[in-house]
Amino acid sequence: MDEENKNAQSTGVFKDKLTEEIIDFLPDPTFVVDKDGRITAWNKAIEEMTGMPAQQMLGKGNYQYALPFFGERRPMLVDLIMDKTDIVAGFYPNVMTEGKAKAHEGLVPALKGKKVFIRCKATPLLDKEGNIIGAIESIRDITESKISQEQMERYNILFNQTRDIVLYVMLDGKIVEANQAALDAYGYSKEELLSLTVFDLRPKETHPMAMAQLEKANASGTRFETIHQRKDGSKFYVEVSSRGVDLNHQRVLLSTIRDITERKKAEQALFQSILELKETLEGTVHALATVTEKRDLYTAGHQKRVADLAVIIGKEMGLDRETLDNIKIAGILHDIGKINLPAEILIKPAKLTDLETALVRTHSRSGYEIIKNIPFKSNIASIILQHHERIDGSGYPDGLRGEEILIEARILAVADVIEAMASHRPYRASLGIHRAIAEIIGNRGVLYDCAVVDACLAIYRQNILNMLLQTNDE
Hints:
- By secondary structure, this protein is an alpha+beta fold.
- The chain is about 45% helix and about 20% strand.
- Strands 2-1-6-5-4-3 form a six-stranded antiparallel sheet, with helices on both faces.
- The chain starts with a helix and ends in a 5-residue tail after the last helix.
């Protein structure tokens, strides 16, 4: 700026054409004012920045140069050079002084209709005696760098203030950056942690497995649970979310890691509670079944065998685990309603009368009434109620047909008939498995569900029925 000072006259007009041309071709937008605030130079760069041609600006005073930036006439940085009053200084409370020059960064609201961050620098122009005859101000648009800086500041705040562990990892597993949460969690200094790889944090896992997860993270992102190890050797459960990102023109993995140890402990405690509850429920179910069978020694084990057979049929049909569990519970309890029948009917060695048969047929509804208020996960009571219904509507107690009958009840119906015919009863000897199979084949689609019969025949061909029922055809 000293060269510019030497080339200035007391009139504020440069004494040679070369100096004017140099200013005109400066890469930064630049303008010059004389000591009265009139514009004496307005270079090509500032023309492009503001959209205001020099011929419309030269010679203008009264803060004309502020209009393209602020949309109003007001002091700019050059005015601090020539007017040091508090009024002018009030516009630039955070101005920086660099020798005789003034510098400032700020937001201008009206540059071509947009808000723009600019960095300004104003320097006095002196005559030979050192008197101020004007000032020159250069302006640079720093919007992009300012936004990038603010974004970086926000990122740094998030990076170091988040409670989750954040690691930047090279594709070969080397850790290249870590936040404060990572240092706190693993117990390493930053220098120590950046000397490690992610494989050092997962010593119990094979290198190929961990490497495969890195490759998946880079390709499409991944989330998984594993166990990490601290510097002191202690371990903790973590959930890792990792994906590939471009950082400084290099591909790396951004991994966010959350300590889920407490969640895992809660899950394990919940699982144990569910397991204990399930064991209690199973104990209750078997106790109820035992009460029934104690009154009918001839059919002892019948309910369990029906339940086991029904579950095998369900598996053959491809039913899900929850449905199979429902079948098992309902099978074990399907005759619970017989607890309301007189023992002499249950063990009668002769054929039942019509009245006795009608009384026996009440056991499915009685079983429903006994079970309905027990809070099973599924409607076990309805399965028990329907296990004597038949496809053609000839069953009891409600004469339901086809799909009106629950699939669990349709399976129990076949299993119940097979087990009953293949077992001894007080009033007859075992009819044998082959007779039982002939019964369900002959009434396939009439009394018994086709899919259930087909599944039962499949396990019959595999000789599973003989092993399950422990009896031979007679």
